[in-house]
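Most newcomers find our protein records easier to grasp once they have seen one. There is nothing in a record beyond a sequence line and a structure line. Getting from the letters to the tokens is the skill we practise here. An example says more than a description, so a record of this kind follows:
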Amino acid sequence: MRVPFLLLTISLFPLLSAAQESPATFPGTEPLKAEQPLDVLMVEGIDQFSLKELDKARQQRESLWKRDYSSAQAYQSSLEPYRQKLRTYIGAVDQRVQGIQFERPLKFTGLKAAETKPAHAYYEPQFQRWPVLPGMTAEGLILVPQGAESPRGIVIAIPDSRWSPDVFAGATEQGTPSSKLPQVLAENGFLVVIPTLIDRTDEFAGNPLIAMTNQTNREWVYRSAFEVGRHVIGYEVQKVLAAIDALDGLNQSTKWNLPISLVGIGDGGQIALYSAAIDARPASVLVSGYFQPREGVWQEPIDRNVWRQLVEFGDAEIAGMIAPRPLIIEACAIPETDGPLPVQAGRRGGAAPGQIKTADLAQVRIEFDRAKAIYEKLKPGNHIVLVESGSDGRGPAASNAAIMALAQKSDWRDFKPEARGKSVPLTEAVNWRSVQGRQVGEAIDFTQKLLRNSFKVRDQLFAKADRSSVEKWESTAEPLRDHVYNELIGKLPEPSIPLNPRTRKVLETDDYTGYEVVLDTYPDVIAAGILLYPKGIKADEKRPVVVCQHGLEGVPMDTISGPGTEGYPYYKGFAAELARRGFIAYSPQNPYRGKDRFRTLQRKSNPLGRSLFSYIIPQHQVTLKWLASLPAVDPNRLAFYGLSYGGKTAVRVPPMLTSKEGRPGYCLSICSADFNEWVTKNASVDLPFSYVFTHEYEIFEWNMAHVANYAELSMLMTPRPFMVERGHDDGVGLDEWVSFEYAKVRRHYSKLGIPEQTEIEFFNGPHTINGKGTYDFLHRHLNWPKK
């Protein structure tokens, strides 16, 4: 009999006189007893949920694979869909230039000339460039063996990003890594190609005309590339594959027909692993110092953050894509890093935290065993080997044992794993810092070109919907909404657990009572906020609700002014003002609070194809479900109004939450102090207000440039009313940029014959609620009279 009693209590609540003191708990709910601030509970809960989801993904990953082990050919064919997915996830999707050749002819010395050199100097280091993508080249060294008509084999040796090719090859006096790998290979008669990786200094991280930062060069490239569906990892994989293209051409022209192997250390090990996984040409692979479970990738440098990767691809699954080709995994010490870099004079801070640590040997073994199980299903399946350098896997990289394991599996006979003497110096002067600068600059330029042309892709995508009428738009736009939700935001399953509402009174005025509210969303995940319930609501009255969203690092009380509260001034107490006007107002707590505490939620979610809004949208779903259940609420008049990060919410949440199948949705949305040409604001390196220069490292959204910008997101509100509020002095953007992007929205509504459903208000003011045109918009479209 509990439910009827609660319903009776709720129905009687509106009859309370404004002069009476409201109950301590909102009728129909349980008392809220939480002692921690609700924002802390929310962020901690999502953190626990996301970590469990990472672990769950690891357990479920194998079920997503459909490998055909019946034959080697069948196995390779069955891998192709997964290769395409991995190419997409790392952004290695652009067509490489055709007819790739090394810029300079390789110089071979005959046997007699070679005999005049020291015994160990039977190779010559030569600086080389080779084209990769339009406007992008790779640069590095090629160690050319001397004294023979042809090399005995070809190896692409990829250094850790902290080693330039000359250091890796020992061709400089500036100090060498412990590995002598390139020298050993060259002395054994192999042609060795050593590409340059973008490094972990901050020398080129920024635009000197605007600001330089403490981001690593890799993070600097990562930030803008992520927004256009590209990645520093993908760019470097493309450079390795372009080298294979050039070597294939060389094999053909010389009729060598030599197999090409890949070896890599640290970051180079990652690039070698991924390159061999998506391309079947490498004959054998050595991955040194990069192989372990990746569920902790959120603790690594952000340039290793790959959208959706861990749904299907742990290191073991990627290794399985190399099978049955020989793969040597070496557990060893690697250069470690502890970011972010210190902020040097004249630079901005804000780089993402992240560490690279030598992997625990037990963890390497666990991941190796998973990869080995895939190999063993192929016949023969003994082509994967784990080498443990040192007694605990912390010995030097590319140890003799690892090199010999590669030699044996690659059938390199009479291979000598130890260097015979000093390495050969580079005879020509190469400015390796200039090389690094070009590598960074070309990656940035390629990304910026994609950015400038991205609108064409979005236009083609949204042209799939029928704009001939409102009805046809609504029916044909639904697949677009699903696409945007899944590809840009990341969709979680529908919340299904009981709401279990808990409340407590936190303020009371003559006009309204404020209640803190907590609702269950998923295990560990809550939705929370403050309900402002106007006094004097009649028993049979149905009122509209306005959900009033705070911004970055905010709390619901910031949107409220009243006894004992001050409210963040730029919000101008808009939630309280709306409650005084008779609207039921609800101010949710959003999880973008706590600096790195919430920013790492994005890092923990991205590898599963999720974002912070993957949690925020279901939080709003359960909030709307609860609000719609209140007797005084009209479930068809649930509106949204958000400032700043709340404005971000305004174009990401209401468009996804439509009323259908008995589920309440938002009937209206207002975006305040945020609407922008958002893709450009995120990815441009030429605008002073771009996020590439700031501390919001979580802000970047995978491939947004090719999925939906703010105009397209806002179009998904159609035919529901949508409004933009913009202060001329708001530093988040420029009026011109805002007008440019909004013009697309206005045209869209007008073409559908409903121009009155959208508007923009410019006002003289900063990053703030103006509360004039927007209030009129709410009264008009929610059919609520002004007092």
Notes: Residues 158 and 264 are 4 Å apart (CA to CA). Confidence is low (pLDDT under 50) at residues 1-18.
